[in-house]
Design goal:
heteropentamer; A alpha/beta (342); B mainly alpha (299); C mainly alpha (335); D alpha+beta (523); E alpha/beta (268); C: 335 residues; mainly alpha; 15 helices; 77% helix; D: 523 residues; alpha+beta; D-Maltodextrin-Binding Protein, domain 2; Dipeptide-binding Protein, domain 1; Dipeptide-binding Protein, domain 3; 7-stranded mixed β-sheet; globular
Chain lengths: 342, 299, 335, 523, 268
């Protein structure tokens, strides 16, 4: 295990709205190393995406505020960087991919132009990307790089496709282009926010395979934000389960999925039908995600938890290790070895 | 086994319908400009109703003249001076509110009515009927509206009703296009498909499901259009095809005042400023309404 | 592309037919006696009948329409009952003045409105934004003729900086006719002082006319810029470290302007028909004044002619806008 | 210069305007144009150049400068002076006129003006029956105009016509050869519409319809007298305020459509001369004597006595009240005529004798859209009639609609304000047009018809002896006043203003805004 | 095999090219010779990716669209041959639950209006007066696990899962026997999805409903359905018992699809 690439420390995020102040992130901590693919899972509204955007410092502020916490990227606290310094990191050190490939490409510009723009911007901060080429030469080098990147993400006839517009591509192809764009600046950390949700299963499998291959090739760290535990199981090395702005369980995928310790993780898994689930025996999870403006005291999952006791309603439980690299924030974790929802 | 029974509903309890209104009002109040607009509109509507009664010289509003007091500059007795027949400009301006506001309402209302029928039918029926109605709408839109209104008004002769009718006849295409767009949009909504799947008749689908969901943008457009309708009314008056004397009307007053510029500037100031403030009021109000009623159209 | 152009131009034919039918129907509505007016106060019944016959007004309306359309195909817009001059020639002499005014107003509106809209979108919710929003509402709400009068009052009557109206002082010979735009023609003729003079005459009417499109374009540009800024691809561009300036020009300005273009096209046509009031105030010898005079004297041929010409220019302008839109937006181009 | 609006009076404003004038710089001052060019500002476009079809004062301006009539009108009171004819003789009975043409007279083409051209012109005018030909209709029979020799032409009138010399200034002579060369299918109307075949002191140099018409001094101008003008521009400035401002700035030399308010504003303006003169132009309110409530003479009289005449004059600005149907000062006008003046008691007496002794009715008054004085008169009537408990509905109408409404008593409104301009300086002009039943159905006199008045008018126009005519018109005036067909309104003064630089101007109360420029000079 | 409720025989649907601004687009074959039979009381699953023709088939069954060729039989009756009146009666017996719980409820109507609307339209069949309709609406709401006190509320006051329950209540209002379930859970979070799936099973058992379940989620289909058909590019690729299809897919496409589906299984 190498040095920490990214270390999120007790990150708090609030959003002001008509109804009041929402405590969207409530002490999120996460450590990502090179070569790791972290899956961040949870129901909608639990703060997964905002965690991802916070790393790139892309959350509109106001209404967002960060009352506490730090995000360290190779030891530098990103929270203390200026926007200009931050911009230098984006694309070159931290790449991002978003959910909807149809809306994330500028419809009025050619694919090539968009790739080249990113490459040039990245070369501005790290001239090695275009091997130090300048001016016109840089443009030519950027174009060549764009072709290489497209080929790398599996687009055939890449040189000709540079002159195409986004709407001439299929959804999967567009997502490949977006991945190429995210990777063209050779980032060390890739944040992929639901990169396959809008795609069909067969395409999803291809894209996930592509991502895995790229991480192996480039020795980078990845944060894969998804609501689909299946995707995590298939793709990730580690997983962080989030609930209502908190990370409630982290650990290697094998550990967490085989032996989920947090009742919420268990409930999530029980809700997914598998080969073994018999008709009518799926376990639902009663209730809804709590109101983040007036969150319940203590453990935010307590109102929906069948193991909750008095202590759970008092103070939020701290992350406690249960096994190697496996931690859980629960007063009553399920420690015994058992298979979920047998 | 089933969790059906123990559903708890934290949101449902916390969000009664009234809160939607409160939220809208809150957002409206947030914008100081919308409040200014509402206040101005209130003042305008107040004068539209009571202007004739409150005018300091009601006899002038009814057509009375005092030629001995022609062209008096502003004074305490006549804050905006007197005009070419010795009439109190302030009184005429106050009373003129009624005509402008009524005409504006009339134009917008008739325009909306025609436009909604045309656009509603076109959007809902689709096919060749849509094609014919919309080609006709586009055609009408192609004719410069002010010239069309002037031609119709000139043909019908001066008078309040004729003027309103003339402007309305050049006003409806905008609504027809808006309503058609909204109807087509709503027609594709899943809840409309749902209604059709239930077996709802076309009439029911149109009146129960589609039109109610097009109301907000129509209301917003109406409120935004009020100002422009008032401007057009005044424009016709300015050209000289407006209401009949002695009905006080701002555009006509301005047109008359124009011949006496710059020496007798005061006869122009009151009607011009009143017109400006009225239109500002309706426009600000319309912007505010759009922000709460039609978030899609928000800036 | 060519096919598209040809089809759009062919579509003008039904527009022409529709326009003339509508205008003829209105002419038919007129309860007045245009012949009586044109014949003059001292004409006898015989003279009036002769005049009616001369202009074909004694025939049924469909017959008149058929004659008109036949003439139209040869570029003949009929004759004015009042002046007996051919309408086509009249329009040809008035149109350049109106076009010059409208182009000047649109130029002001676009050159000021588009960047201002972009800037206020960037400065959203800060005081320059609020200020320009207030000013914009005021500009939209200002009656053009009142604004015109105020401008005249201040700049022409009190300060005496600018002329009161017209295109040129009476004593200045207009430059030789090339484009019909006096400012342009003066430059072509190399007559700089006439150019400046013509510009001074153009200033107030153009400003009075430009204010409302300026404000609308600004608001449109602002709102579509804000909308574009919220688009996913802008977020992606930011996330991938593209410099601000590049995002602004490549992503925001381009996409926001394509939405604004539609407004510009609509406004262009609207202004052509909306110059009436400004032309009246500034005594600008354009189509609006011509149409107003014809309308008041119920001389329908000029009115039909003006409506037709403006309508066609409007349609052509929108065709150009569609083409420009296609240039900016590849989706439309290839769809 | 930041004027304080509240304290600004008209005088101080003018001083300001004057000061500004000096500061304002315009690239080309009047003198910059080559030669002496007189610029006249008018709001009326010139419809066409054909002397036998064009009408209106703007056309009259063009025609009287580029064409010649046999005689011209000049002076105050107006009288006939030589035009093409250097002298003329009238027969005893007033039916034979012989004109001797000026041998110097030549057309712009260089050809001499001959008796043949005169005969041709009158024949053409009568044949077309447009323009000003109505003035001599039924009086001049083209068949009875005789070219005695090249320089002499003799008219034998169908009946004696006292105003013959007064109408002749408006009958223009065209060059027969030039017109016949361009005859086309419409008697050369199309050609003459934009071409000139005249002998006048000026010719058309350039024109932009709706903008300006420029005349240039004819190369072979033969007319005696004459000023130093090289040309004249008829500049269209639609707004009177614009005309006034242009005059103040020296951009135009003469403004012909000014209002009373403009004249007030021009008072004391440096370099500007105001001309406010009475003119033979009546402005009265016609009543529907044939149909509706006003067919009752008592109601008409009641109305006549109820009108606030003082307000009429005040609203009209520079004007004087009419005394009876004829313009003040014209031949035969009786200034001592007993005409109604505001007297509410008398009004109520008459009202009591009418069918509506307590009022309570609504009458309809129509005025022409855009005519400001007519609108003002309508409002004054509305105000006046309130005293009789009569409501007035005011309806602005487009001019052609008004023309149409005049066709029958049923469609004619109860009240209609009318301007009657004397086209020639003779009482017959107004009397015949405005009160003779021959014009019934036309706007000048849509409904009023009285055999007694008709007879007097006919007698007046065929009598030559001036003293006898004065007596006839005295009786005519009394007869009309007794019938009360009109509310006699005002005579608006002619309001012209010109730069001091214009010299040799003499006012004539006939068509004074169609300025004859030949005698004028610019210094 | 029990009596077939729905028979789809050789249905094809071709969309003719639309005339666009800049020219014509090519015709699209949305359905190609599709034949399926749904038996009474079963849960039939139709699986396909986006653009496979699932939605077109659903709309055709509901007669919201006309097939270009082929027949759709309901209890042996050709729906295309029905009079408008009979078709309307039929609509009471086939109902649908839509994918998007946010879009499928008219925002301007109360829950009561929404749930009673089918009863109002089919009052000749349902035969309930106003008060009875209201009672039944309350009954339906509690049947799907919502309190009847919510009748006066508007859709925007509910969460996604609750709205989907309302959608189900509406679908049940006219007493149908066949429910078309058009991806009813794909817009929901997994925990909520589980609740809705369980509700559907419970309702089917209680009301003897026949389900025609459309989904792209293989796991859900396997959980709920007894028989499955795979559709791809408008063609039925494979059809059969759920277990057979998942355990021993016959076609290459089915194998790819099944292997691509992510499962919560730790990779070896």
């Amino acid at each position: 295990m190498g040095e920490a690439l990214l270390q999120i420390d007790d990150l708090h995020l609030t959003m002001s709205s008509f109804d009041g102040l929402a405590h969207v992130l409530n002490g999120v901590s996460l450590t990502v190393r090179r070569g790791e693919i972290w899956g961040v899972v949870g129901e909608s509204g639990c703060g997964k995406s905002l965690t991802g955007l916070s790393i790139s410092r892309l959350v509109q502020s106001p209404p967002a505020r960060y009352p506490a916490g730090a995000i360290r990227f190779e030891g530098r606290n990103l929270m203390s960087l200026s926007q200009r310094e931050m911009q230098a990191l984006r694309g070159t050190r931290i790449g991002m991919i978003f959910q909807d490939p149809t809306t994330n490409l500028n419809p009025t510009l050619k694919i090539g132009t968009q790739l080249i723009d990113v490459a040039l911007a990245a070369a501005h901060h790290d001239s090695s990307i275009l091997s130090g080429a300048k001016g016109r030469e840089a443009r030519r080098a950027a174009r060549a790089l764009a072709v290489r990147m497209l080929e790398q993400v599996g687009i055939t006839d890449a040189a000709a496709r540079l002159d195409s517009y986004p709407h001439e591509f299929s959804g999967g192809m567009r997502q490949r282009v977006l991945i190429a764009m995210a990777l063209i600046g050779r980032p060390d950390l890739l944040i992929a926010d639901e990169p396959t949700t809008a795609l069909d299963v067969s395409v999803q499998a291809q894209i996930l395979a592509l991502l895995r291959g790229i991480v192996a090739d480039h020795d980078m760290g990845v944060i894969l934000i998804t609501h689909n535990l299946g995707v995590v199981a298939q793709t990730c090395s580690h997983v962080a389960v989030m609930y209502a702005g908190n990370v409630v369980e982290t650990g290697p995928v094998a550990q967490v999925i085989d032996r989920p310790a947090h009742p919420y993780t268990r409930a999530l898994m029980a809700a997914i039908p598998t080969r073994e689930t018999r008709r009518g025996e799926l376990q639902g999870l009663a209730g809804t995600v709590p109101d983040l403006i007036r969150p319940p005291p203590g453990c935010r999952f307590a109102p929906r938890c069948n193991r909750a006791t008095e202590i759970c309603r008092g103070q939020f439980p701290a992350m406690t290790p249960t096994a190697a690299g496996h931690s859980v924030a629960c007063y009553h974790p399920v420690i015994e070895r058992e298979v979920a929802s047998a | 086994m089933s969790d059906v029974a123990d559903i708890s509903m934290p949101h449902a309890e916390a969000a009664p319908r009234r809160e939607g209104l409160a939220r809208g009002w809150f957002r409206f109040r947030q914008s100081r400009l919308s409040m200014v607009g509402a206040a101005l509109t209130f003042v305008v509507l107040f004068f539209a109703v009571f202007g004739m009664m409150l005018a300091p010289y009601p006899e002038h509003v009814a057509g009375g003249i005092e030629t001995g007091l022609r062209f008096l500059p502003p004074s305490w007795a006549h804050p905006f001076g007197t005009n070419e027949l010795g009439q109190d400009v302030l009184s005429l301006t106050m009373a003129g509110t009624t005509v402008s506001v009524l005409a504006g309402f009339g134009v917008v209302l008739i325009g909306t009515l025609i436009g909604t029928v045309m656009g509603g039918i076109a959007g809902f029926a689709g096919g060749w009927l849509d094609e014919i109605l919309m080609r006709f709408t586009d055609l009408t839109l192609t004719i410069p509206s002010l010239i069309l209104a002037m031609a119709i008004a000139a043909a019908l002769g001066p008078g309040f009703e004729n003027m309103v009718l003339a402007i309305s006849l050049s006003w409806w295409p905008g609504y027809a296009r808006l309503v058609r767009g909204e109807v087509i949009g709503a027609r594709e909504e899943v809840y409309v498909t749902a209604a059709r799947a239930i077996g709802a008749s076309p009439t029911r689908v149109l009146f129960r499901h589609i039109l109610p969901n097009c109301v907000s943008p129509i209301i917003v457009k109406m409120s935004l259009d009020m100002g422009f309708a008032i401007l057009t009314v005044a424009g016709l008056g300015f050209i000289g095809i407006g209401v009949r004397p002695p009905t006080p009307e701002w555009g006509t007053m301005l047109s008359n005042a124009r011949s006496y510029m710059p020496d007798i500037w005061w006869t122009a100031m009151a009607p011009g400023t009143a017109m400006f403030l009225t239109v500002v009021g309706f426009n600000l109000l319309g912007d505010g309404l759009r922000d709460i009623l039609d978030p899609k159209g928000r800036r | 592309m060519l096919l598209f152009l040809v089809r759009r131009i062919l579509l003008l034919i039904p527009v022409i037919i529709g326009l003339t039918i509508i205008m003829f129907a209105i002419a038919r509505l007129l309860p007045g006696d245009p012949v009586g007016l044109a014949a003059g106060p001292n004409a006898t019944q015989v003279e009036r009948e002769a005049l009616a016959q001369e202009f074909g007004l004694d025939r049924p309306v469909w017959g008149q329409y058929a004659t008109y359309v036949t003439g139209l195909m040869q570029g003949d817009l009929g004759r004015s009952l009042l002046t007996r001059r051919p309408v086509a020639a009249d329009i040809a002499s008035y149109l350049p003045a109106t076009l010059e005014l409208v182009f000047a107003a649109m130029a002001i509106a676009i050159v000021v409105g588009v960047p201002l809209g972009l800037l206020t979108a960037i400065w959203r919710n800060r005081w320059p934004d609020y200020l320009s929003q207030v000013v914009a509402i005021g500009a939209i709400s200002m009656p053009r003729f009142f604004l015109g009068l105020l401008l005249q009052l201040v700049f022409a009557m009190w300060l005496l900086w600018l002329p009161l109206g017209g295109r040129l002082p009476i004593v200045v010979m207009p430059p030789p006719f090339v484009t019909g735009f006096i400012t342009v023609d003066a430059l072509i003729a190399g007559d700089f002082s006439t150019f400046v003079t013509a510009l001074k005459h153009l200033a107030m009417p153009a400003i009075a006319l430009s204010l409302s499109p300026l404000a609308t374009i600004m608001r449109m540009m602002r709102s579509s810029s804000i909308e574009v800024m919220a688009q996913d691809y802008v977020m992606t561009a930011r996330a991938l470290g593209l410099p601000r300036r590049k995002i602004l020009t490549r992503a925001i300005a381009r996409n926001a302007f394509s939405a604004t273009l539609t407004v510009i096209g609509l406004y262009f046509g609207w202004l052509l028909g909306g110059t009436v009031l400004v032309e009246t105030v500034f005594d600008w010898p354009g189509l609006g004044l011509y149409a107003t005079k014809a309308i008041v004297s119920q001389d329908m041929m000029p009115v039909i002619g003006v409506a037709l010409v403006i309508g066609l220019i409007f349609v052509m302008a929108n065709l150009l806008i569609d083409l420009a839109y296609g240039l900016i937006n590849p989706k439309v181009r290839y769809a | 210069m930041t004027p304080d609006l509240t304290s600004l009076t008209r005088r101080s404003l003018l001083a300001l305007a004057g000061a500004g004038l000096a500061a304002a710089s315009f690239p080309a001052r009047l003198s910059a144009q080559s030669g002496k060019i007189l610029i006249i500002a008018s709001n009326q476009d010139i419809p066409n150049f054909d002397p036998h079809t064009a009408s209106g004062y703007s056309a009259a301006f063009l025609l009287r400068n580029v064409y010649d009539p046999l005689v011209r009108v000049s002076g105050n009171p107006p009288e006939a002076v030589p035009g093409l004819a250097e002298s003329w003789q009238v027969s005893e009975d007033g039916t034979e006129y012989t004109f001797n043409l000026n041998p110097e007279a030549t057309f712009h083409s260089g050809n001499k003006v001959t008796a043949d051209d005169v005969v041709y012109s009158f024949t053409r005018a009568a044949g077309l029956a447009k323009g000003n030909s109505w003035m001599i209709r039924d009086i001049v029979d083209p068949g009875r105009i005789e070219a005695v020799d090249e320089g002499t032409v003799k008219f034998t009138l169908a009946m004696p016509f006292a105003a013959f010399l007064a109408v002749l200034p408006w009958q223009f002579i065209v060059e027969k050869a030039a017109v016949e060369a361009n005859l086309g299918e419409d008697q050369g109307q199309t050609w003459l519409m934009t071409n000139v075949a005249g002998s006048g002191p000026f010719t058309v140099a350039r024109y932009e319809p709706g903008t300006l018409y420029q005349l240039a001094r004819a190369e072979n101008a033969w007319q005696p007298g004459g000023g130093n003008l090289d040309g004249v521009i008829w500049q269209l400035l639609r707004e009177t305020a614009t005309q006034r401002l242009a005059l103040q700035r020296g951009e135009v030399h003469i403004a012909v459509d000014l209002t009373s308010e403009d004249m007030d504003a021009l008072e004391g303006a440096p370099g500007v001369v105001r001309i406010i003169e009475p003119e033979y132009r009546t402005f009265s309110i016609k009543m529907n004597t044939e149909s509706g409530p006003l067919s009752d003479i008592n109601l008409r009289k009641a109305v006549s006595y109820a009108v606030n005449y003082e307000a009429l004059v005040e609203a009209a600005g520079y004007a004087e009240l009419m005394v009876g149907p004829l313009p003040n000062g014209i031949l035969g006008h009786n200034p001592d005529l007993d005409v109604p003046r505001q007297d509410l008691e008398k009004a109520k007496e008459y009202l009591a004798q009418s069918e509506h002794p307590d009022g309570g009715i609504t009458l309809r008054m129509v005025h022409v859209t855009g005519l400001e004085q007519q609108r003002r008169f309508s409002l004054i009537m509305l105000d006046s009639l309130k005293a009789l408990n009569i409501d007035l509905e005011i309806q602005p109408m487009a001019w052609p609609d008004m023309v149409a409404a005049s066709a029958s008593p049923e469609t004619f409104p109860d009240f209609f304000p009318v301007y009657q301009t004397a086209n020639y300086g003779d009482p017959d002009n107004i009397a015949f047009a405005a009160y003779h039943s021959a014009s019934n159905g036309n706007w000048q006199n849509a409904v009023y018809s009285s055999p007694e008045v008709d007879a007097l008018i006919e007698e007046g126009r065929t009598t030559i002896d001036p003293d006898a005519r004065v007596e006839i018109y005295r009786r005519f005036q009394e007869a009309v006043v007794a019938d009360a067909p009109d509310v006699f309104g005002v005579l608006e003064m002619r309001k012209l203003a010109m730069r001091e630089a214009v010299e040799n101007y003499n006012f004539t109360p006939v068509a004074s805004n169609a300025i004859y420029c030949w005698p004028l000079s610019l210094n | 095999m029990p009596e077939p409720v729905l028979e789809i025989r050789n249905v094809s649907k071709t969309y003719t090219g639309r005339r666009g601004l800049f020219g014509k687009s090519d015709p699209v074959d949305a359905l190609r010779d599709v034949s399926l039979t749904v038996a009474r009381g079963e849960s039939f699953g139709l699986v396909g990716e986006s653009g496979s023709g699932k939605t077109t088939l659903t709309r055709s069954i509901l007669r919201l669209e006309q097939p270009s060729s082929g027949q759709i039989l309901f209890h042996g009756n050709d729906m295309a041959a029905l009079s408008p009146r009979s078709l309307r009666r039929l609509r009471a017996r086939i109902q649908i639950v839509f994918q998007d719980p946010y879009a499928s409820l008219n925002p301007r109507m109360t829950i009561e209006d929404i749930v009673t609307e089918p009863m109002l339209i089919h009052r000749d069949i349902v035969g309930l007066d106003r008060a009875a309709r209201r009672d039944r609406a309350a009954e339906l709401l509690s049947l799907v696990g919502l309190g009847s006190q919510l009748l006066r509320r508007h859709p925007h006051e509910f969460s996604g899962g609750q709205r989907q329950r309302i959608g189900i209540a509406r679908a049940l209002a006219s007493g149908p026997e066949l429910l078309l379930l058009d991806e009813p859970t794909s817009a929901l979070d997994v925990s909520v999805q589980a609740q809705v799936l369980n509700l559907l099973i419970e309702l089917q058992d209680r009301l003897q409903l026949t389900y025609f379940f459309i989904s792209h989620d293989l796991a859900v289909v396997r959980y709920l359905c007894t028989r499955v058909a795979l559709i791809h590019h408008g063609r039925i690729i494979e059809e059969g018992e759920t277990n057979r299809i998942f355990d021993a897919p016959q076609t290459e496409y089915a194998r790819t699809l099944i292997s691509a589906a992510p499962e919560v299984r730790v990779p070896a």
